[in-house]
Amino acid sequence: MSYLFTSESVAEGHPDKVADAISDAVLDVFMAHKNPAYRCACETLVTTNQVIVAGEYKGPTIDNLDLDYLVRRVVKNIGYEQEGFHWQTLKVANLMHGQSADIALGTDTFGAGDQGLMFGYACKETEDYMPSAIYWSHKIVQGLSVARKNGVLWLGPDAKSQVTMEYNDDSSVNRVSKVVCSTQHSPEVTIEYVRENVESFIRDILPKELVDDTTEFFINPTGRFVIGGPDGDTGLTGRKIIVDTYGGYSPHGGGAFSGKDPTKVDRSAAYMARYLAKNIVASGQSDWATVQLSYAIGLAEPMSVYVESSENSRDLTKWIIDNVDLTPKGIIDRFDLFSPIYSSTTNYGHFGKSYLPWEKVDLFHQCDGHTQE
User: Fold this and answer.
1) SS3 of 328, please?
2) What are the start-end ranges of the E strands in 186-258?
3) pLDDT in tens, 128-141
4) CB distance 341 to 356 below 8 Å
5) Which residues, including other chains, have CB under 8 Å from residue 180's CB and lie 6 or more apart?
6) pLDDT digit string (tens) for 196-228?
7) Interacting residues of 330 by C-beta distance below 8 A, sequence separation 6+
8) Which of 175, 240, 273, 362 registers the highest number of CB atoms within 10 A of its CB?
9) pTM, whole model, 2 decimals?
10) Host H or E run for residue 211
11) What does residue 7 show for φ and ψ, rounded to 5 degrees?
12) 360: Cα separation from own chain's centroid
């Protein structure tokens, strides 16, 4: 019997993603020094013409970080020049402070920056080893953002998409069942114009073999959407954790990513879990894989390692434990995580982007029938 599964994504102008982008931009300033002694955990709140940045850091004094300029640059690059949220007129509040000495006790020795559990997932549904619903949801809002920046001026920065996939009873992808998309737009265009053009745009993005005469499109279902972004809704760092990962298709440990340096295993261990899952699937050892890692604050070795896959789960778990360094330092060194790469992760998912180091397929090779690193 067939079944449906739905995932959503949001554009870079969504209020929560504006906050994520600012937090990751602040982090990248620290990571640009490539100094493993530097730390940053940055949270951002955005609302009508106001940006509040708070958190802790270790490294260059915050006076040397031109936070006001950094925030305005991020907002300008996203494209906000509206009355209620404009990169030139918004106010910036800087509440950053030095890192707690108690937290430093753990992270300075490269123990985990906090306790927690992280999940990674991969499957064969798409070329990026990502589930189909989140994959196509990302493609839709990313495409809208590209079109806007390339001259489709009636589109606004704020947008959301949602794709419902229909699966066959053997869990293979059958078709796109429903598409929901809401996009901010200029007041000069009618809702009929928005609906017609956005649906046409989405149809060009989705593979024709996945769309049929019964696929339903719901474009701006509430109608007019002129006031958007932080002027329409408050945004906070870390509220789009399902968008950032697998669209709800696999478990989630609950930790957010943006603004956190790689000693925070919420981020770095989630990247390692994805790397392990993707390499298991890409090496042909399983059609899909879920990996869980867990940690305790201040301790380097994981509390647990768990692999669930279509086959060989326990053997794979043992092989990973025996052959892969899963300490925070081991993860950081493998992926060179003290680098200013984090702004490139903020939007359209932290996984499935081939240029990111945890997306490499280089962990396994076959040697005399035995899996080796």
Assistant:
1) helix
2) 216-219, 235-236
3) 999 999 999 999 99
4) yes
5) 8, 160, 161, 162, 163, 218, 221
6) 999 999 999 999 999 999 999 999 999 999 999
7) 324
8) 273
9) 0.94
10) none
11) -135, 160
12) 17
